[in-house]
Amino acid sequence: MPERSIRFLIDTNLFVAAVKSRKTKSTELLVRLIEGIYELVADDILISEYERYALKFEALGFLELIRNRVVVIEQSEEDILRCKPYFPAGSAADVVHAATCLHTGAILISNDAHFEGIKEAGIIEVWSITDAIKELL
Fold first, then answer.
1. What do you get for the CA distance between the two ends of the chain, in Å?
2. Residue 122 Ramachandran class (φ > 0 left, ψ -120 to 50 alpha, else beta)
């Protein structure tokens, strides 16, 4: 368990893994993040993604819990420009998620391979879902 208060951004793939079956370690992780001592951040695009999947998987309860806990952050143009070179074309949402992490110092929890370049460059910290489960559960 981390010793300091940590800020996280929960990527859509964790949200989907958690709400799709609701009886997995991913679900336990999502609940721990929502109910825990951690600070949660998101951006408007990510909130829209959560909404889309909450409707698809009938997980409006999880969506409401997240909405009540996250702080929605607006990124600066400077943060977006710093993150953009690490992503392929067509990954605008991922750039914004990374910029949100850069702006807030949040750890991104994601299994999305698009974040490997920015992780390797040390611009933001990225944990896989498995790493987050090992650290937080």
1. 8
2. left
Type and span of the H or E element at 39:
strand 39-42
- The runs of H, that is alpha helices, within the chain are 12-21, 25-35, 44-56, 60-69, 77-83, 92-104, 116-120, 129-136
Q: Which two tokens stand for residue 79?
A: 């943060």
Widest pairwise Cα distance in the chain: 40
pLDDT, tens digit (0-9, with 9 covering 90-100), for 78-130: 999 999 999 999 999 999 999 999 999 999 999 999 999 999 999 999 999 99
Angle of CA points 61, 33, 50, to nearest 5°: 45
User: Span 51-58, mean pLDDT?
Assistant: 97
Residue ranges of domains in the chain, CATH in brackets: 7-136 (3.40.50.1010)
